[in-house]
Specification:
alpha+beta, six-stranded antiparallel β-sheet, 2 helices, flat, disordered N terminus, disordered C terminus
């Protein structure tokens, strides 16, 4: 004859076994889901975070825009310094800075400033200029060492448009450009080009512009 204590102990043991079985089954289900997710990632060709190819030909590995550490020019007021554009046709309201990036392409140990800017305008588009300044020069009077894109440059009789996002790889600088065909609307230049400069020890030597397959608008910032 089973006593009350025996029945209580048997009940506890049964519940314990059932709980152990449930936990075992749950571990199998979760483990199977994890395996399927891993297989799916491998099938898709997913890459670990931080890897992947550069979609723009010749781009290389971009230098972060916050690489200004160590450059006195990180505190420069570019709207005061960049006063040499003729902005009369744009309304003569001054200039706007689209982007400032810092990169040590000359190997001096101090990143130089790459500044993209244009006139403040009210039209649908306006060309921009890209200039390089010696990172070790005075922030109040920075020394210009190169002009990568001039605001007056033209192709097919119309201004080139430069992207405000430059790429850097070692001593190579890449600029993305857009150019108009004769029948393009002002909003939509259909030609895309890349322009590269390589530091040769004394200057940033320009390579011929290269037409990129495909077309589309290059953002001006």
């Amino acid at each position: 004859m089973h006593t009350t204590a025996d029945r209580t102990r048997t009940g506890r043991e049964g519940r314990t076994r059932r709980l152990a079985v449930l936990l075992f089954l749950a571990s199998l289900v979760l483990g199977g889901c994890g395996d399927r997710n891993d297989d799916a990632g491998a099938a898709r060709g997913d890459s670990p975070s931080g890897t992947g190819s550069d979609d723009w030909p010749g781009g290389g590995t971009p230098t972060p825009a916050d690489a200004s550490a160590g450059s006195p020019l990180s505190s420069t007021d570019w709207t005061r310094v960049l006063d040499h554009l003729d902005c009369l046709d744009a309304g003569n309201e001054g200039i706007e800075v689209l982007n400032t990036q810092f990169a040590d392409v000359r190997g001096t140990g101090v990143p130089d400033a790459f500044v993209t800017f244009r006139c403040i305008y009210r039209a649908s588009t306006w060309p921009s200029q890209v200039e390089v300044f010696d990172g070790s020069s005075s922030p109040d009077n920075p020394k210009r060492i190169a002009v990568l894109v001039d605001v007056d440059e033209k192709m097919n009789g119309r201004n080139l448009l430069a992207s405000s996002d430059l790429s850097f790889s070692g001593g190579v600088v890449t600029v993305k450009l857009a150019a108009y065909q004769a029948d393009d609307a002002m909003c939509c230049p259909s030609e895309r080009l890349i322009r590269t400069f390589t530091w040769d020890g004394t200057q940033l030597g320009r390579q011929p512009d290269k037409l990129v397959s495909g077309s589309g608008h290059v953002s001006d910032g």
